[in-house]
TrEMBL record:
PROSITE patterns: DHHC. GO terms for cellular component: endoplasmic reticulum membrane; Golgi membrane; plasma membrane. One of its GO terms (biological process) is protein targeting to membrane. Belongs to the DHHC palmitoyltransferase family. The DHHC domain is required for palmitoyltransferase activity. Its EC number is 2.3.1.225. Keywords: Acyltransferase, Cell membrane, Endoplasmic reticulum, Golgi apparatus, Lipoprotein, Membrane, Palmitate, Transferase, Transmembrane, Transmembrane helix. This is Palmitoyltransferase. Its main location: membrane. One of its GO terms (molecular function) is protein-cysteine S-palmitoyltransferase activity. It is a multi-pass membrane protein.
Length: 348
């Protein structure tokens, strides 16, 4: 394959990945998503009805119903990255005498991450049940700002504890609801926020470690090829040093899969890194994504089941009170790692 074809495929795949990640893991009403939704509408006006209906149904099934699909996608991508790493990078780095210790870092991280991933999937996030609801109601006080006492979930027919929310994908109310994560096919709530946080950071570490080792390999490959000192004769017969474009082209053609993987991982590293930092911030200020979002005065259907779909939370967000619930960073963090249990009465 020639350089341009390869490069075009590469760019197309990267853009598709970026697009999908932004569309489906971001906040539903971010400016970015608004733009994407607009783009979707434009595209939709050119597609036939049956295709639209089919894609709508598929999207619904993928993102609004529980399914393990994304867990499999996750494992598949991971498998591909690790196969590629083991097959091409590991051996090369061994020859360039990178220590075995640094080369084993990605594998250790993989084991750790898989364990956390499993916990995140399997842990009950804190489902509000008939049996437990009476104790769950005492975990947090109602703030009468975002959460009001005496509101029942119309679906579960149970009184909603403060900070809980009904997950429409799982069809249950979850205590200290954060969000529903399609990648773990589970809600993130009181009992698994800690795993989710660790999961994000371990995934980042994995992407970072493999990227560094791969970068190291490519650097060695460039040095070894001698391209940096090479030159070529241009069309006027002048000798020109081979510039960076030459190096890139050379790497692309020699290690297409490795470059591909590196691009993917670097992208992942920054996206996940940002997301992990956001969740760390939320953990530190004792907020859930759900609350963060609501207190920004975004659309809220949860203050009151009867509220119009587009009413604004009242009172209107007061930014001076954004850390209203925080009792200090460490205590907030402790609450993530040792979530309050239903039996515990609040305020002692
Ligand atoms: C976190 O916020 C809740 C109210 O939403 C509060 O009851 C709880 O005590 C806070 N926890 C900490 C550690 O500040
Ligand atoms: Zn419910
Ligand atoms: Zn859910």
């Amino acid at each position: 394959m020639d350089f341009l074809t390869l490069f075009a495929i590469y760019v197309a795949v990267v853009i598709t990945c970026m697009f999908l990640v932004c569309k489906y893991s971001g906040q539903p009403q971010s400016p970015f998503n608004t733009l994407l939704n607009y783009l979707f509408k434009v595209v939709a006006s050119f597609t036939p009805q049956w295709l639209q209906r089919l894609s709508q149904r598929t999207l619904h099934r993928l993102f609004h119903q529980r399914s393990n699909l994304f867990i499999y996608v996750h494992i598949l991508l991971e498998g591909a990255v690790y196969a590629e790493f083991t097959y091409e990078v590991f051996g090369f780095c061994r020859d360039m005498d990178t220590t075995l210790t640094s080369l084993s870092v990605p594998y250790v991280l993989l084991v750790v991450k898989t364990f956390i991933f499993y916990l995140c999937i399997k842990t009950d996030p804190g489902t509000v049940t008939k049996k437990k609801v009476s104790s769950q109601l005492h975990i947090y006080p109602y703030d009468r700002r975002l959460f009001h006492p005496g509101v029942s979930c119309p679906t579960c027919q149970l009184v909603k504890p403060a900070r809980s929310k009904h997950c429409r994908v799982c069809d249950r109310c979850v205590q200290r609801f954060d969000h529903h994560c399609i990648w773990v096919n589970n809600c993130i709530g009181a009992q698994n926020s800690r795993y989710f946080l660790l999961y994000l950071f371990s995934l980042c570490a994995m992407a970072g470690a493999i990227s560094l080792l791969t970068g190291d390999m490519l650097l060695h490959a460039v040095l070894r090829s001698g391209l940096l000192r090479a030159s070529y004769i241009d069309e006027y017969g002048q000798q020109q040093p081979a510039g960076p474009l030459f190096v890139v082209q050379h790497l692309f053609l020699t290690f297409p899969r490795v470059i591909f993987m590196l691009g993917f991982l670097v992208f992942l590293f920054f996206v996940l890194g940002g997301y992990a930092l956001f969740h760390a911030y939320l953990a530190l200020v004792n907020q859930t994504s759900n609350e963060w979002y609501k207190s920004r005065g975004h659309v809220c259907q949860h203050c009151h089941p009867t509220a119009a779909a587009d009413h604004l939370c009242s009172p209107v967000p007061d930014h001076s009170k954004r850390y209203y619930y925080s009792r200090g960073l460490l205590r907030n963090l402790r609450e993530i790692f040792f979530p309050l249990k239903g039996v515990q009465k609040k305020g002692n």
